[in-house]
């Protein structure tokens, strides 16, 4: 199984796989934190259901008399390959640690990492599964009355960055703040208009060899700044250099792509590969020593905001979701069949 996963990483890396070398060497402390998590499954919505890993502070000793924020997390491609892999393939379980939990309102937070149903050839960049994930989130909240519905936050990276964007624009009155990291597509002017009253934080790297800095990151930022009614609530973080993504834990493939592992340690990972970090708000003011959790936690849902979400256009869904996804799936199958034929892997 490990060999097959390594091959899958190698053949699909060009489509935004999120397992960088640094994330693959996560310390044992995060492994222990993962044992505090559980798994559940959302209801069937439009023919899809989404399973997920989650952390409940109440189940782990927090007071049942208080309300706590909920952070929704969406990862990159292939982290939905196997049930539970969405939790073990990245370092976001680090937010389970007391030092990070204590930064949230009332000293704790619920964490939920969704798994894209990749076995059915759906990834987080597909808006088709967005209503099903929203259904899973709603179901989770109904089962956990200690969730503070005024403090629900959405974060995602790579294809999960697209997913975070989809969720935030389709349900803008549901999330108090959103974070979109190295998305494989930009925020359109129409989407920025939907988000005009919302806190949004974008992240990217100037040298990312997968995500275009000028055409995706900067264009998204320009659209957000132009539409925002309160530029002080939006942020942009840019790195001159960031960790890359590797093939089979060994060979570098996508350079300067991983900005999310630093977020897993609240912007203080200590990884020397992060260079030239700069964060500004929509007014151009530089934020010194930014921290993600405190930023998220500073916002509550503004129910007075006059915003309404919308589904992506048919043309967008056809070009960006259907065509691109079908190409990705066909390419994966062709390369796996080639490798199987020549004995590099055994698909049985």
Polypeptide structure, described:
This protein is of the alpha/beta class and 348 residues long. It has a single domain, classed as 3-Layer(aba) Sandwich (Rossmann fold). Helix content is 33%, strand content 17%. It contains twelve helices and eleven strands. The chain has a nine-stranded mixed β-sheet, covered by helices on one side. Strand 9 and strand 10 form a beta hairpin. Helix 1 crosses helix 12. The chain is globular, with a radius of gyration of 19 Å. The protein starts with a helix and ends in a 7-residue tail after the last helix. 45% of the residues are buried. The N terminus is likely disordered.
Short description:
The chain has a single domain, classed as Rossmann fold (3-Layer(aba) Sandwich), CATH 3.40.50.1820. Helices cover 33% and strands 17% of the residues.
Count of separate structural domains: 1
Number of helices: 12
The name CATH uses for the topology is Rossmann fold
- The helix/strand class is alpha/beta
N- to C-terminal distance: 12 Å
Q: On the 0-100 scale, what is the average pLDDT? A: 85
Order of helices and strands: HHHEEEHHEHEHEHEHEEEHEHH
Which band does the percent of strand residues land in?
Answer: 15-25%
Major β-sheet annotation: 9 strands, mixed
Rounded to an integer in angstroms, the radius of gyration calculated over CA atoms is 19 Å
The CATH architecture is 3-Layer(aba) Sandwich
Q: Total number of β-strand segments?
A: 11
Uncertain spans, ≥5 residues at pLDDT below 50? Answer: 1-26
The H-level CATH homologous superfamily, spelled out, is: Alpha/Beta hydrolase fold, catalytic domain
Main β-sheet, spatial strand arrangement: 1-2-4-3-5-6-7-8-11
User: For the record, what CATH class applies?
Assistant: Alpha Beta
């Amino acid at each position: 199984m490990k060999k097959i996963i390594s091959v899958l990483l190698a053949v699909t890396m060009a489509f935004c796989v999120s397992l960088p070398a640094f994330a693959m060497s996560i310390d044992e402390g995060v492994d222990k934190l993962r044992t505090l998590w559980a798994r559940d499954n959302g209801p069937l919505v439009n023919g899809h259901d989404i399973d997920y890993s989650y952390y409940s502070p109440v189940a782990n000793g927090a007071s049942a008399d208080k309300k706590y924020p909920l952070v929704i997390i969406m990862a990159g491609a292939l982290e939905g390959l196997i049930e539970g892999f969405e939790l073990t393939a990245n370092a976001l379980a680090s937010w389970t640690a007391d030092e990070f939990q204590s930064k949230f309102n009332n000293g704790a937070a619920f964490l939920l990492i969704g798994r894209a149903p990749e076995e059915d050839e759906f990834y987080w960049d597909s808006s088709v599964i967005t209503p099903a994930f929203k259904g899973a989130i709603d179901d989770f909240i109904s089962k956990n009355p200690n969730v503070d519905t005024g403090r629900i936050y959405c974060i995602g990276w790579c294809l999960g960055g697209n997913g975070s964007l989809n969720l935030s624009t389709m349900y803008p009155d549901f999330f108090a703040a959103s974070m979109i990291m190295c998305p494989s597509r930009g925020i359109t002017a129409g989407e920025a208009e939907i988000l005009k009253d919302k806190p949004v934080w974008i992240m990217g790297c100037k040298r990312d060899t997968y995500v275009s800095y000028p055409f995706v990151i900067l264009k998204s930022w320009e659209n957000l700044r132009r539409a925002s009614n309160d530029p002080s609530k939006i942020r942009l973080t840019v790195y001159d250099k960031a960790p890359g993504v590797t093939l089979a834990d060994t060979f570098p493939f996508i350079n300067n792509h991983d900005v999310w592992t630093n977020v897993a340690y609240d912007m203080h990972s200590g990884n020397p590969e992060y260079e030239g970090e700069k964060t500004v708000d929509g007014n151009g003011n530089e934020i010194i020593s930014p921290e993600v959790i405190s930023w998220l936690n500073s916002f509550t849902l503004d129910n007075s905001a006059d915003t309404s979400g919308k589904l992506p256009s048919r043309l967008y869904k056809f070009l960006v979701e259907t065509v691109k996804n079908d190409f990705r799936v066909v390419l994966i199958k062709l390369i796996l069949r080639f490798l199987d034929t020549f004995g590099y892997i055994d698909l049985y």
